[in-house]
Amino acid sequence: MEWESSSKAMLLGAVTCGLYLHYALWGELLLIQDADNHWIDQAHLASQLRWFYGFSFTSLLLIVGTYLVRQLKGDLVLFEYIASLYFGLSLCYFSYQVGTLSLPVGAVMVGAPVVGFIFFNRAAVMLALFLSMLVQLALSFGAAWQWWPYAPMFHNTQGAMSSASPFVVFHMYFYTLPHMVFLITASYLVLRRWRDREEKVRLLSITDPLTGLFNRRSILVHLDQEQERSRKKGPALSLLMVDLDNFKSINDDRGHEAGDFALIAAADALQKSLRQNDRVGRYGGEEFLIILPGTDLEGAQTIAERCRQQLESTDVILAKGDRIKLTGSFGLVCNEGDVRMGVDEMLRRADRAMYRAKDGGRNQVVVDHMHGAA
Ligand SMILES: Nc1nc2c(ncn2[C@@H]2O[C@H](COP(=O)(O)OP(=O)(O)OP(=O)(O)O)[C@@H](O)[C@H]2O)c(=O)[nH]1
């Protein structure tokens, strides 16, 4: 996440504050509504409420302090250390109150480090986790050896835990709820962002940035795949190599920007003339490669002619109404019937046919002579 350390620390401070307010509200309600509750130690709960409010208040101080120090010293990774340690250690207090081996403690011990490692400085999370675990172990074993009570918030803890009383079950889920909401929401948002980003990176890696067509690498990958499919008497496969005519003069006369504009227009024109399963990519500067899967020579000639005409009829209109006329030379090769070439051979022949189109006066489609046509 690209947030500043201070912003992350303030977010964690707000989460800790919200948690302790949630617990304080729970305590207040219990004290008001259920004066004779035999599961909870009412006097103990009343005495602990000030701690719940105290932790909420300290969390607010942490937020304000982080904000003020940021104004003076700028962003510091130290903020993340302080916020993570505060979060981990302050929750140890609550875990002691409700039982270190309870459901909410388990949820925090597993969920918080996972989300923490995604959002926060890893060393800060590691340190907070390590120290909190030590405290948790000490609290658990201390209670086991009866140095201090286990879950002092509850009366008759043994009975409550062993019979899973509705009171305890309800309250364990009540404590766990805010953690689950936060941890699951945070994981969901982060994972969704990762997936979006991954998709963007994937698209960038296969797309030519200027024209938005497949780039050279990805159009060649498609060609490999289609050639593999068409091998061994599979469906026919046609390949078109297109080179824009006299492109250098566009750059020389109107400038490189106009040239770029013309390339985009040419890419659009070619794409417009193709079918859904056809693929067009930018092979080089002003050179394009068109893959026509499942297309025999006759069909490919029709499509090539359509592309040529579409290109010819494309007017690139520049600022001030200046116009550029586009044409292209097309080399066509087809794998069909007994003719089954490898990718390199197809590319070589398409390129040669394209040069013959140039030599023949440009703005035309030439079929590789293996097919007996010129
Ligand atoms: N504006 C712009 N020009 C490019 C780009 N890539 C290649 N070019 C230009 O395309 C031109 C290609 O010129 P040549 O290979 O000499 O061919 P041509 O002028 O098209 O002539 P023929 O191919 O023989 O019809 C060069 O001037 C390159 O600089 C690009 O991304 N943007």
Overview of this structure, please?
It contains 12 helices and 7 strands. By secondary structure, the protein is α+β, with helices and mostly antiparallel strands. The chain folds into 2 domains: 5-206; 216-371, Alpha-Beta Plaits (2-Layer Sandwich), CATH 3.30.70. It has a 5-stranded mixed β-sheet with strand order 2-3-1-6-7, with helices on both faces. The protein has a two-stranded antiparallel ribbon with strand order 4-5. Helix 9 packs across helix 10. The chain is elongated. The mean pLDDT is 90. It binds guanosine-5'-triphosphate. The site of guanosine-5'-triphosphate has 16 residues, from strand 1, helix 9 and helix 10. Its EC number is 2.7.7.65. Keywords: Membrane, Transmembrane, Transmembrane helix. One of its GO terms (biological process) is cell adhesion involved in single-species biofilm formation.
> What is the radius of gyration computed over CA atoms, rounded to a whole number of angstroms?
35 Å
Q: How many structural domains does the protein architecture include?
A: 2
User: Which of globular, elongated, flat, extended, rod-shaped describes the shape?
Assistant: elongated
What is the arithmetic mean of pLDDT? 90
The side-by-side strand order for the widest beta sheet comes to 2-3-1-6-7
Helix/strand class: alpha+beta
Percent in helix:
55-70%
Largest sheet: 5 strands, mixed
pLDDT < 50 runs, ≥5 residues:
none
How many alpha or pi helices?
A: 12
